[in-house]
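Study this:
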Amino acid sequence: MLDILIIGAGPIGLACGLEAKKAGLSYLIVDKGCLVNSLYNYPLNMTFFSTADRLEIGGIPFTCTSAKPGRAEALEYYRRVADSEKLNLALFEEVQTVVPEAGKVYLVKTGKTEYRARHIIVAIGFYDIPNLLNVPGEELPKVKHYYFDPHYYYRQKVLVVGANNSSADVALETWRKGAEVTMVIRESELGRIKYWTKPDLENRIKEGCIKAYFNSNITAIREKEVDLQTPAGKVTLKNDYVMAMTGYQPNFRFLEKIGIQLEDNERKHPVYNSETQETNLPNVYLAGVICGGLDTHIWFIENSRVHAEQIVRHILAKAEKKE
């Protein structure tokens, strides 16, 4: 019997484990993938917008040689946190069901075993389900919703869909590694891009190294071509790969499956108390970016670290009332 079972071993799930440990509560952090699985799947050369101190959890210093840490440094830091604090982890173990039992206890079944816990914290992030283009041909292998290493696209014709950070990084990195890069952007201008990246991309577009179609959409994908709808009409481009950097969304199906309600008619946001993080299910909490629902630009590591403290404080306060 655990005091807390934490679903998700990302930075905020780890932060919840650290707070539970500090409070003397028994806990386990379960994840269907590796430690900080979302960060592991980030692009190889990704640099965080945040400084290292904003990515720290549990008051454990994050030191790195540059002002903005990269993917490799972040993975090293969170491994060090898990090891130094001897966090209780069950990795590569997917949670399948969370079922309430008598006495306000939850039975949690995974792909490997089952657990019972008095409290559940859901900290699953939103990186697993990409936003689809919903155009013919999107199912082709050439269409990628995740990006890792630019070398793969050397001398390939690459179409990048999107106008924000991920799209900018993909366009610039693949172009610098020898790809022929075109961008298709729904808006009339570039979007939310890191301040040190945006001028670089603007200059590459201005000089014509990277072709950009603004106020445009991709309408069809074929093995060696793509169709765009532009202000000037339909454009067909020769193409080897489509990099659909269109963002991601939370696993609402999992939330609903375990009984967490989604608010409003559009069902875009999970229901929870912003002061305690408790959902409509008693003793079941949300932590981290999952709290924003489809508004994935609300919560980040740096501003959702406090969720761990809020949740554990609420659990301890309820225990004191019982006594």
User: Anything to note?
Assistant: The longest helix spans residues 306-322. Residues 91 and 123 are 14 Å apart (CA to CA). The first strand starts at residue 2 and ends at 7. The mean pLDDT is 94.
